[in-house]
Amino acid sequence: MPFTPIQTFLGGLLLHFSTSSLLEDTGRVFGVSGIVDGAVFGSHERWQWGIIVGLLAGPAFSYATGLQAYYPGNALHSIAQIGLGRLGLAGALVGFGSRLGSGCTSGHMLCGVSRLSPRSLIATITFFATAVLSAKLFPLGPSSNLSDPAIPAYAYTLDQPSFAAIAVFIGLIAGLKIAYAALSRYVLSTASFRSTPYVLSGLMFSIGLSMSGMSDPAKVLGFLRLFDLTQFDPSLALIMLSGVLLNGIHYARLKHTAKARFPWESWRVPTRKDVGSKLILGSAAFGVGWGLIGICPGPALVAFGESVIHNLTVTGKHDSLLGIITFLGAMLGGMRISRLF
């Protein structure tokens, strides 16, 4: 898969802004698996549904503005190449593992590692290790032991966007950040439309995933192909620089105050440091499912939103919608089962 350092770095900035803004304003961690589980099976809070709406709305915004043409990767094409059985199995493992292990790539890696949380550090190491092994042992290719259609492998190339595309991305990042700040001030001054900042936070995260290419499972699997350097795509590593590192700097500034900016919210950052069997087993299960197809909860919601828009606007055969519904249904089933533990 083509290496996209500029696009991924800029997309990582949006992931940083969305997660750090949510933390500073609400004291909450942007963990997509926990948000989905809480919205569907838990307390059903409005802020959770606001973020989910934002995640789903990202592709619609991109299509309406024409930004879709600038994004690297093709998530719908990649998903359409994967068999329903593999999607269902991966979804169940991702849902079950992310909840048993108390987080996924967003909550543990993007947010937890930036706080130097011992639990998140162990969880991230665990699910990356099992994901790499899963991608190696059960590859999406002609030699796949699960005998599903293949996501084609791409030789390593470097993809550099035009100056126009870079300018568009930077303008979009600045515009979304300014819009979030303005809406947050408005909500604080009027005590109305309290769901708006959460929706915009989810929207920024969704666009960040698309801009970075991390919504495309083929691109994620390219990073997990550590055993085949000719097809290795290091793009995901740029998220550690523009997302995790900047989140860490931001958290270092906030942790001394430990107070949410929104008066109706309170500081809810986890403080647990214990590492138990549930964390290890859950993270390992999540990693296996993630390594099978390269999809985790956040990109799954973005792909669902993109597939719906694609089906509404483009004529012809569309195989991705059924596939992503299969994954999401199995993921929710896995989350429900994890509650038994």
UniProtKB/TrEMBL annotation:
Pfam families attached to this UniProt entry: DUF6691
Protein name: Sulphur transport domain-containing protein
Keywords recorded for this protein, A-Z: Cell inner membrane, Cell membrane, Membrane, Transmembrane, Transmembrane helix, Transport
CC annotations in GO: plasma membrane
Location of this chain's protein in the cell: Cell inner membrane
InterPro entries: DUF6691 (IPR046513), Sulf_transp_TsuA/YedE (IPR007272)
Main location: membrane
Transmembrane segments: 47-71, 121-141, 161-183, 195-215, 235-254, 275-300, 320-338
Membrane topology: Multi-pass membrane protein
Domain of life: Eukaryota
Species this protein is from: Kwoniella dejecticola CBS 10117
